[in-house]
Amino acid sequence: MARIEYSKMPDRLINEAVAADLSVVVCIPCYNESEADAAVDSILRCEVPDGHSVEVIVLINAGEDAPMTTLQHNESTHAAVAEIKVPEGYAVHPIYVHEIPKKKSGVGRARKLAMDEAALRLDESASSLKIIACYDADCSCDTNYIAALIEHYQVSQKEAVSIHFEHPEAQLGGDEIQHAIYLYELHLRYFIQYQQLIGLPFAYQTVGSSMACSLSGYRRVGGMNTRQAGEDFYFMHKFIKDDQCDRLSKTTVYPSARVSNRVPFGTGRAVGEMLASREPYKTYHPSSFKSIRCVVGSVDQLYDAKLTRSVSNVYEEQIKVFLQSISFDEKVDRIRANTTTLSRFRRAFYQFFDAFIFMKYLHHMRDHHYPDMDVLAAAEVLADKLRSNPQNSEDILHEYRTRAKIV
Questions:
Q1: Biggest CA-to-CA distance, the chain
Q2: How far apart are CA 227 and CA 118, in angstroms?
Q3: pLDDT tens-digit readout, 80-104
Q4: Who's near 139: CB < 8 A, 6+ residues apart?
Q5: By C-alpha distance, which of 16, 105, 2 is closest to 55?
Q6: What are the pLDDT digits (tens) for 310-345?
């Protein structure tokens, strides 16, 4: 079954039998792409360890309002993927779901369709490893990508993993697109590195093309969401909040730096906006991270205190204003009353003060105290705090990538 109208979707999208040793299913959402076959080829070049097999699901999709040019691209993509010569140990399944209602279309829906099908197929496998990997139709990867995933899950007890990524075109002194993607990736790495520096436990990259989870984990969190953007962030933070996420740095995924406006944020959108605005790319001010450090550093004191306000009263005034807006004292008092050990309190605290609250905090500080600043300048401030010593601005992204691999 290859082309399916959304309103007539069957329970199973793939009819082929499942290999007994199926261990990894790579899921690729695909909309209006011209080189999805190259993305699939990059996976098929990966060595598959003995005793395992791999499937690739390419979920080509189109909404009911998709223009004719998109439909034609999708048809060409479906044909190109279907004609790929598939090596032993692999199976490739191009699926074209079209006429998706406008309110239901988007990358989240496409990821979910592919991942749900992957879950059904892995259910039938006899393999001891059952891994659902997320990839994108404009990516390539190291040839050890599959082997590294399998090796990771043979030893890791965590359900999800954030895989190291690098934009290969990123070059500060390159052309406009190379320059823009350099700054955007630097922003992503600065954002996570600063969180790690101040001790926040949810400091993980959540990039849709470079993440994976176990079948049991996928089922536990209720599967992929259907958001039209940010689906990867929301999905991965379900695992992160429960301390069920690891990092994998022994392989690398290479996303494209192309311009795109198909989602309201993300790499393609950021690159396009930089090219259009001609303004320096900005990121969160270092002082916003520095200010919240007092809260992170006082979690143990919050557990020991009889009342939260006895600790929070010593925070900086701008922090207290934000915390009052989220009923911080009352919520932490409630957490303390319902936890019996410090470790349980810490976990419950960060279930409340999570990545979403942290983003809300950063926006509050940006709007009221510390405006966003040039990402190069901000990254240099953090590099100094990390005692990093990049020789020049061209090297600073390399320094951040290297640090991301050794966390």
A1: 67
A2: 19
A3: 999 999 999 999 999 999 999 999 9
A4: 39, 42, 209, 253, 254, 255, 256
A5: 16
A6: 999 999 999 999 999 999 999 999 999 999 999 999
Spell out the domain ranges in the chain. Answer: 1-155, 286-368
Residue 365 near residue 325 (C-beta atoms within 8 A): no
For residues 381 and 198, what is the distance between their CA atoms, to the nearest angstrom? 14
pTM of structure: 0.94
Residue tagged 């601005």 (tokens)? 393
CATH number of 1-155: 3.90.550
| Structural tokens at position 227 | 């958001």
Write out the two tokens for 304.
Answer: 């020991």
Amino acid code (one letter) for 190: Y
3-state secondary structure the chain: CCEEEHHHCCCCCCCCCCCCCEEEEEEEEECCCCCHHHHHHHHHCCCCCCCCEEEEEEEEEEECCCCHHHHHHHHHHHHHHHCCCCCCCEEEEEEEEEEECHHHCCHHHHHHHHHHHHHHHHHCCCCCCCEEEECCCCCEECCCHHHHHHHHHHHCCCCEEEEEECCCCCCCCCCHHHHHHHHHHHHHHHHHHHHHHHCCCCCCCCCCCCEEEEHHHHHHCCCCCCCCCCHHHHHHHHHHHCCCEEEEEEEEEECCCCCCCCCCCCHHHHHHHHHHHCCCCEECCHHHHHHHHHHHCCHHHHHHCCCCHHHHCCCCHHHHHHHHHCCHHHHHHHHHHCCCCHHHHHHHHHHHCCHHHHHHHHHHHHHHCCCCEEHHHHHHHHHHHCCCCCCCHHHHHHHHHHHHHHC
Per-residue pLDDT tens over the stretch 357-372 = 999 999 999 999 999 9
Sheet with 211-214: strands ordered across = 3-5, 90-100, 53-63, 22-30, 131-134, 211-214, 160-165, 245-254, 140-141
**Can you tell me the distance from the alpha carbon of 250 to that of 235, in angstroms, rounded to the nearest whole number?**
23
